[in-house]
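[job 4471] stage=fold_predict status=RUNNING
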Amino acid sequence: MGQGQGVGSWLIVQELLERGDPAFVDELRKVTDADALGAFAARWYADSRSASRRLVFAYLDRPLNAYRHEALVKRLFKLAEAAEDHEVMARFLVLFDRSVRRVRAAKRHYETQVVPDRAQADALSATWLARGYDSVNIWSDRQGRLHVVGTRTESIVRTSRTSVMPRGRLRETPDFTSWSPVTGRYKTFMAPDWVTRLRLGRWIPREEVEVPEAYRSRLERYRLFSTATRNYLRRRCWRYFWKLGRRAPERYVAAISEALLLYRDEDVADALALLDNWGLVHILFHHSPALVARPNGWWPAEGRTTADLAPAPMYEALWKRAPRAVVDLMVRGGCRPVRQWAARLVRGDLAAVAAAVSLEELLAWLGHDDAEVVDLAVELLRSAPGLDALSADRWLVLAEGANPAALELICELMQRHLRPESLALAEAVRMAMSRPLPLARLGLRLLQGRVPRGEDECLLLLGLAEAESEPFRAELVRWARGVLAEAPGFDPDWVLSYLDSRHRDVRAEGWAWLRDEPRARDDVALWQRLMESPYDDVRLALVADLEGRLAGRDVGGMSPQALDPERLRLLWASVLLNIHRGGRAKPMVVRQLLRRLDARPRELGEVLPILAVALRSVRGPEWRAGLTALVQLVDRQPDAAPVVRAAFPELQWA
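[job 4471] inference complete, writing structure tokens
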């Protein structure tokens, strides 16, 4: 049976192989000439260059779904098996494990029973429904007998019936658009087997042809070889390693570890997928009483589930003599069951593992994504020697890159082994500014009791206003405020930096600092700059404070008249524009504007438009009080009457 080479080019394939180009694998998978592929296997496997061997590994890491590659795969397998090539056989073990997947399906059962009377029929119906039947019907035949018909659905596990890759063989295919009344059958035509599998219809010519390029991707959901052959190949592959353990036990752990590192999380997506990995389950749980091996795969034992699995590997004694290999699997394993299995073996002999790993390795585990690995690192580090010799910078790097589950322990170890005097102030500040709460708390503990020396260190503490741990930031800035307030070179601008912070909790602490700190509270330049604040909470607090000063409740302090008129008007206008904030600040603004005009009548033209907006936005007593004050202003300053009438045309003047 002739077969073309497909869309792949042998010339390009050979050129890419010579160059060791990774694109070789994609190009080779496009070739569909089975005879040529089979002949190519020996030459490719015999190529001893490292680049060629990497390409073999890359090819076997792809799914078993390259159309017409049966001959190439089978011959590579036999060559590797004969050469006792453990690396290639490890990849075949994983490849064949991935090639068989069972699915859960629903199987419907129908049961019928004939009973003589209605009472028995009702009793039987109730019994079946109590057992979980989906439905039960009762009907009577002509003889008056009652038939009880029940349906129930059973969940089953079966191998997919449509997973086998077509091979391009010509077969007689029915044409469902052409019925022959003479023969009483559909007419047929000869077509490749993939025509029916891909449901392409009768347009295919009656001869063997290549799969059209537009349909090649639809073949990727199928797998080479029949399901029975794939089951046989994975059993044979595992048998190879089983024999290796008996014949050369000193090589077994290293060889099988090569395979274990290749499994990925998607290979064990659920409990059923885990059991579908024939070789993997033999390696990890061969002696487990929770499982039963059958020719078509692993099954849970009666009354057991995969939750009952515990490490019970083949050749367990060999694993116990190789703690270093177990540790490597725990750290580098690509799928969670392998890492968990290795972690449980490690826990079984912590002393041997502690002797096999260095302190640096244990510290590196703290950043691992798997919680099992982190937990083990935590357990081993509690008694590990050498932690006192770690530098402060090393501890910081560890804390910042650690898995969140390990952070509490790292902070505990830092507090126990890190000497505060070895930590520069900048490093302690950096720690306190971290986002993780345990690290920020430790940073503050290390800062407490330290007094800043010089302006540079004061500015470092001022940087705590940008701490990333939101729940802890208020406590940090409150502590820093207390330390900075006692610093010999106090600068009122430090208060301003709090009030200009992008964080509301820092601004709230800054306002409390401003009210409590005489050196900042009466600083005119500081107030002038605060009036340009972009934050509503600061502007509203300023208005309230000015109200207190104008009402005489802050005797002896800074006079509001000393403030820049333009900035005061900007403050009042910005507060009035924030209607959504509510009206509590607006009456204060009205009173402040009227007092300003009374004290500085020459500013009437600039202040009156703001006052008009303020009066129209208040209600009730504040509105009446404002109008009264406005009339009194006109009485005291008759020259202001035309301007006031123009600003309030709705008022009637006597």
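[job 4471] summary: The chain is about 55% helix and 10% strand.
[job 4471] exit 0
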